[in-house]
Amino acid sequence: MVRLTLGLLALAAIVCDSTVSAILPNPNRRIRRQASNCSTPVDPAIKAPKPNPWLPFSRNETATLLEWLHAPAQGLNLTVYANFTPWDNRVGVTELLIPNKTDVLNYLEGGPAPVRYARVELYFGATENPYTEDYIVGPIPVSEATTINPLNFIYNKGNGKSPVYAADYQLLIQWAESIGTQISDIMLDILGTDLNTSRIIASDPKQEDGRTILWAQYGLYPTSEYDSGSILPQGLFLKTDITGRKPEEWKLLNIFYDNILYDGVDEFRKAWETPGFNKLTKQVDGNWTHTGRSSTGESIPLDERAPPISIQPEGQRFSVDKDENYVKWMDFEFYTGFSRDLGVTLYNIKYKGKRIIYELGLQEAIAHYAGNDPMQSRTAYLDSYYGFGPYVFELLPGYDCPTYSTFLKTSYSEAGYSFTNKDSICLFEQDAGYPLQRHTSRDFITVTKNTVFTLRFVSTVGNYDYNFDYNFYLDGSIEVKVRASGYIQAAFYANNEDYGYKIHDAISGSMHDHVLNFKADIDVLGVKNTFEKVAIVSDTVDYVWSPIPRNTMRLERSFVENEDDGKINWPTNSAAMYVVVNTDEPNIYGEYPGYRILPGSGSPIHLTIQNSSNLLNSAEFGTHHLYVTKQKDTEPRSAAAANSMDLGDPLVNFGNFFDSESLVQEDIVVWFNLGMHHVPHTGDLPNTVFTTGQSSVFLSPHNYLLGDPSRFTSQQVEVRFTPGVDNSAVVKDAPSTPKCLVVDMSPMFPDFSTYQGGEQTRKFPYTDEVDPNASDP
Ligand SMILES: *[C@@H]1O[C@H](CO)[C@@H](O)[C@H](O)[C@H]1NC(C)=O
Ligand SMILES: *[C@@H]1O[C@H](CO)[C@@H](O)[C@H](O)[C@H]1NC(C)=O
Ligand SMILES: *[C@@H]1O[C@H](CO)[C@@H](O)[C@H](O)[C@H]1NC(C)=O
Ligand SMILES: *[C@@H]1O[C@H](CO)[C@@H](O)[C@H](O)[C@H]1NC(C)=O
Ligand SMILES: *[C@@H]1O[C@H](CO)[C@@H](O)[C@H](O)[C@H]1NC(C)=O
Ligand SMILES: *[C@@H]1O[C@H](CO)[C@@H](O)[C@H](O)[C@H]1NC(C)=O
Ligand SMILES: *[C@@H]1O[C@H](CO)[C@@H](O)[C@H](O)[C@H]1NC(C)=O
Ligand SMILES: *[C@@H]1O[C@H](CO)[C@@H](O)[C@H](O)[C@H]1NC(C)=O
Ligand SMILES: [Cu+2]
């Protein structure tokens, strides 16, 4: 409190009209100060033009759905999660099934609201071959009319069933640890640890010749409170056959150490007892794995002074309908939805009153590793399997987002629990740090401020932190940006020289590709659009006015007419522009209005590995930089979470979206990839930093309007001057000075005592503290 007061005094120098009003953004948890007759600006209120058809289930919708599913009348034989064993049936994800675009468009144009359905994932464990299956349940809220049926239409496999090979995971880990007890003397010798200080790190099991094969590796338990497990692998690996559900039938097949594959414990022991057995460098934890401030005493010059911060001098300039997840900033407006698999998705993005994008959001994220060792080589995460939604945790104001941001909660339901993470999405405006426009002439200068509106959330999927930004610009552009931080997954160093740098005594920074697939269902002046390629080509041309042919360049316009040509890479030397245009609505100059898609920061990539031995038929969206397909209600997403369980026969094989359909003036969807080739170096320890760990794409108006829309902003200045003459300058146009400067003083000293990360409450049966009738927070 004392520090806060000092902060206010120290910053009181920022004064306008002798009046300072200092407000702190969240009155619930921070002190509010007000001076003189400056009043606190009220956040502009807004009501969504229509109820949000993508709104996640309310507490009541979830609670009543779970009650209905567990009722004996449904005959599903479900066990309540609290009493659940892997041999029971239970509920997994329960969430809104995203309504068909056909139905939503009808609704947006005045028709009835789409019927709400649930996607319900059920786990069937009471069998030798456990599996999950998706069901469609509705209408929601449940009523007499509600029915349950297999959910098939969004899965081009034909059904929503996936095998579960790791149903007995806990048993599996116990069993694998029992192997360690047979070799604990060897472990102590070559690793310097036994199972008191080392653990089994198991990869996801894979099918090989009809057997379920699981590779595991030893790794150190972190010796500090830091979450550094993923950078402490050890050099000893186990290959096991875990087919079936009887642990007594599971087998250790091989032990792998220093690039030698041993046939089980006895052969390994014999080799170890042989003189000359090569012992590799041991893994040791230390301060190098700690993410806190380094304790060596080293400092950076002038770094103790508070860094610059941004303020919002006249209050919020955007509005949010928190009941309907509807946002309006300047000429943009959109709705948001939220899912367990993918986190936040933006819907019906309108610009100047017209829809430009029906749906914009993440589809799947690959992290594909490589290495000489079986763990790195066999690792290829499809992160929606773990889900982005559950890990969208509370953000730290002043660090993750400006303190004056509007924070929204996220919630989802899985396995009978509801999870609510408060303040886990932030919405804010910020100066881009460079002007949007400028020009100096002989006697005047104009410069325009570049204010950017951002929707941000972070999902920490295991060791990795993905920061997602949707940035809106005054010129009508939207940038989709991903940044990656957190702990890398390191390899044990031995024999991995071709797959990464040696970045510490016993680890290699295992190389990997990040490929994050997004859907952009762009609608330019209606749903019927065409994908245009405007190539920039070198050519030799004869001109009537030139006696000799001239070596020059020109444009080559063409359309991607068919899905057969719908797999596209960014051209070498950026020698083409890709634009979603509407050829039925040429502008007054005869050009087609459109939205262009182009790489932003970083360098968006596709997977390096072709026909991945890990991902099989589940990475068809990762083979190119972008794709164009015809929109279909049966193809809402390029992947499915459960693909990860059956990579050869996934629920959604994106490759099958390409069936030669026409893309000329059809409703088309662009699927693009962000990502990076990540070859960690010493600077990735302890964590990868966002500076280079980022990638973005812009969606930008292209012949869409007849001029640059940012000319309408009042936040620009024009100064007329006489060159060389002092005191001659006249400000022709400039925003008026704020009457009251409302300064957010808290950025220096945010109060983090209320930080919770996330919380869960049981929905079925209800726990005492949950009132299912309570309004959603
Ligand atoms: C504050 O109120 C006084 C008296 O009503 C008025 O003269 C003054 O202009 C006001 N100041 C501001 C910044 O509105
Ligand atoms: C219901 O599930 C239990 C396990 O929770 C199982 O033992 C039982 O056989 C199942 N009943 C039926 C009728 O399938
Ligand atoms: C843990 O340490 C104790 C004492 O050194 C040892 O007796 C025991 O075998 C170890 N346990 C395992 C599982 O390695
Ligand atoms: C590691 O950090 C701790 C405090 O975090 C410090 O006490 C210790 O001296 C450090 N050790 C080394 C080897 O730097
Ligand atoms: C992909 O790899 C699999 C297994 O290695 C092989 O059977 C298949 O023919 C390959 N497909 C292509 C298109 O290369
Ligand atoms: C959505 O559209 C598909 C394809 O036309 C159809 O099979 C499905 O029943 C529709 N879903 C709903 C909830 O109407
Ligand atoms: C859900 O809401 C309805 C109507 O508001 C109410 O009648 C019902 O009791 C609620 N359901 C539960 C499980 O509380
Ligand atoms: C919810 O509301 C309904 C209808 O008002 C009421 O019957 C029920 O008891 C309420 N449930 C709880 C847990 O308060
Ligand atoms: Cu990485």
Percent helix: under 10%
Average pLDDT figure: 90
Output the number of helix runs. 7
Number of strand elements: 41
N/C terminus separation? 28 Å
CATH C-level class of the domain at 352-386 and 462-712: Mainly Beta
- Assign the CATH superfamily of the domain at 352-386 and 462-712: Copper amine oxidase, catalytic domain
Low-confidence stretches: 1-35, 766-773
Instruction: Characterize the overall form.
Output: globular
Enzyme class: oxidoreductase
InterPro entries: Cu_amine_oxidase (IPR000269), Cu_amine_oxidase_C (IPR015798), Cu_amine_oxidase_C_sf (IPR036460), Cu_amine_oxidase_N-reg (IPR016182), Cu_amine_oxidase_N2 (IPR015800), DUF1965 (IPR015328)
Active site: 383 (proton acceptor), 464 (schiff-base intermediate with substrate)
Modified residues (2',4',5'-topaquinone): 464
